[in-house]
Amino acid sequence: MKVCAFERVLLLLALPAIVAAVSPAVADEPDGFARWEKAISAFEKQDREQSPPKDAVLFVGSSSIRLWKLPEYFPKEKLINRGFGGSEIADSNHFADRIILKHQPRTIVLYAGDNDIAKGKTAKRVTADFRTFVKTVHGNLPKANILFIAIKPSIKRWNLSETMLEANREIQSICGDDDRLSFVDIWKPMLGDDGRPRAELFAKDGLHLNHDGYKLWTAVLRPHLERSPRP
Q1: pLDDT value at position 25?
Q2: CATH class for the domain made up of 26-227
Q3: 14-36 burial: b if 16+ Cβ within 10 Å, else e
């Protein structure tokens, strides 16, 4: 079938839109990582001004980590907070050498996956990104413990709960195969008798935690930290 010159022009004009439609953007494309450069550079500035402790417990992940006032909840631990709001597991993978590995933590607490699924990633993709995180950390710090806090049930994202549960189950299975990995199950304690997220644990946005939410997370996480080997 012959295509006239006018039809060729229309096809060329439509091509970018067609490509965009069949190639959805994901967080770990190069341009996606660039948006975090300001936050990562700020961490590096902090490091230059005051060196973080070695053999610490390093928290990394999204805003649930960033907003956690860790010294208030874990006063006896050496702590480093490297949470950057809105981030996904792939972002922590990409910047691992700049915000995790150089600090040589004895234990790493990761909370991420929430934003990943909200942006359309499948449970299998989240699980694959977690595997990459483990490989990246243990390839450089083979003795480090990794504690994965389960993707939380929230009021705002309850419509995504099935995908979140699937990702949690798969990651829990991975953690069960390695003594250096622990799955911190905060999902069940955050549900009420009706099987839905407990409103009293959340800020007004129905997504982020309030003080009571962090008290619960701390109570669930603390036994895992106490079991982690110390130097």
Answers
A1: 42
A2: alpha beta
A3: eeeeeeeeeeeeebbeeeebeeb
